[in-house]
Amino acid sequence: MYGVAGRLKAYFYRTDDAFVAVSAEDEGGRLGKYACRENLWQLEEESVLSPAGALYEQAGHAAASLREIAEQATMEINRKGWQDMPLLYIVPETEQMRYALNLPPGLNAVEQQEAAYWELDDKLLEQGLSAENFACACRLSDEGGNRCTITGVSRGYLQEVEESFAQADLNLADIVPAGGVMDYLRSQRREMEGFKKRQGAGLAVKRILGAWVVAWLTAGLALLAVDFMDYRQACALAGQQQRELAMLAPAAQEMHALTEQAANIADREKRIQAFSRQGMPWHSLLVHLGTNTVQGVSLAGLNVSADGHKLYLEGQAVSYDCLAEFMGRLEDDKLFFRQGITLENSEVAKGRGNEPDKVQFSVSVEWEPDHEGQNDDEVQGSQPK
After folding, report:
1. Which residues, including other chains, have CB under 8 Å from residue 167's CB and lie 6 or more apart?
2. Alpha carbon distance 376, 281 (integer Å)
3. What confidence tens digit (pLDDT) does each residue in 101-147 have?
4. Looking at residue 385, what is its pLDDT?
5. pTM (2 d.p.)
6. What is the 3-state secondary structure (H, E, C) of 34-69?
7. Does the pLDDT of residue 46 top 70, yes or no?
8. Structure-derived torsion over alpha carbons of residues 252, 255, 257, 260, reported in degrees to the nearest 10
9. How many CB atoms lie within 10 A of CB 195?
10. What does each C-alpha distance from 121 to 65, 104, 146, 285 come to in angstroms?
11. Of 301, 297, 292, 299, nearest to 317 (Cα)?
C-alpha cells in the first residue's frame, strides 16, 4: 500500500522494527539486539550473559539456571536502555523436537497450523508422547509449495521459561525455536512461527490516542477561536452603543429635568385644585405667609388635611431661635390663624459639605375656611395702606 493510505497505515498500524533476543547456552547465555534497516534485519549488538555463580549448574537445576540468565538479562537490558523493545527467548536445541513435513495443498494459515499439529501428533505417538503436552510452531519453506518445518517444545518447559523471566521483571513477547530468529523476524506470519502466537503487527495504541487527543484539541481550539471572534464583535458593538449613549446623555439629562419640572408643576396644580375644591382662600393664605416671613426661616411645603380643617406647613430654619420667632409671629396673628399653631416635629439636619446645619420642622394649623371670603377681607384689612 502506497501514497497517503500507506503512510496512514504505517503510522496507525504498529510493526515492530527492533527486537531483543536472549538465549540460554551451556556457558550461560547471550543477549542480542536485532533491528530492521531498509527492510533488512540484522544483528546490531550482542552481549554474553555469564551467571555470577555456578552452584546451580553443578547441582543440575535447569530452572535455577534460567532464573539466573533472566536476572543477568534484566541488568543488561536496563544498562543498555532496551526496556521498550519486545523481548524474545530462543529455545535451545536440546529442548525442542523438529520435523520436516509435507502439508496438503490448498490450505489457509489456520488449516496449515492444524494440519501441522496433527502431523506432529503422529510423530510424537511413535515415540510414546502426546501432542497435548507440546506446543508447536510451523514454518513454511521459503521455496514455496506445501513443505514446512514443524517444531515442538514441552509446555512445561515453556511455562518454566515464562515464570523465570517474570520473576526477573521481564515480559516475553514471544518464544521462538533455536536457529529460527531471523526466520521469525522476516516472516509475515510470525504468529505461526512463535510458541506464544504473537501477532507480527497491530494497532499503534499510543499513536491512535495521540491523534485522538490532537483532534479534540484542534476542535476545542477552533471553537475557542469562534467564541473569541464572537466576543470581539460583541465588545465592538457594546463600545458603539456606549458611545451612542454618551452622545445622548445631555438630551437624556435635559428630558429628565423637564420631566421633573413638569411633575413639580403638576403637583402644585393638584394642591391648588384641592384647596379650591375645599373653598380654601389659598391666594390670601400664600400672600399672608409671604408678608409674615422671618429671616432664617423658609417654607418648603403646604398641605391640607382631607376634611380641609387642618393646614400643615413644612420648612426649615437656620436655628431654633428663628423657628421660635416664626412660631411666635404666627401665634400673634389671631386675625388669620384664630385656632392656634401647633409644632408637630422638629429635628436638626446635618448640612452637606460646608453648609451649616438646619432645623427641619412641621407646623399644623387648625383651620376653618370661610367660604364667603371673610379671611380674604381680614387679610386685606390687616395689611397697611
Report:
1. 67, 70
2. 7
3. 887 877 877 787 788 788 888 888 888 888 788 888 888 776 666 78
4. 31
5. 0.50
6. EEEECCEEEEEEEEEECCCCCHHHHHCCHHHHHHHH
7. yes
8. -120
9. 24
10. 30, 16, 18, 135
11. 297
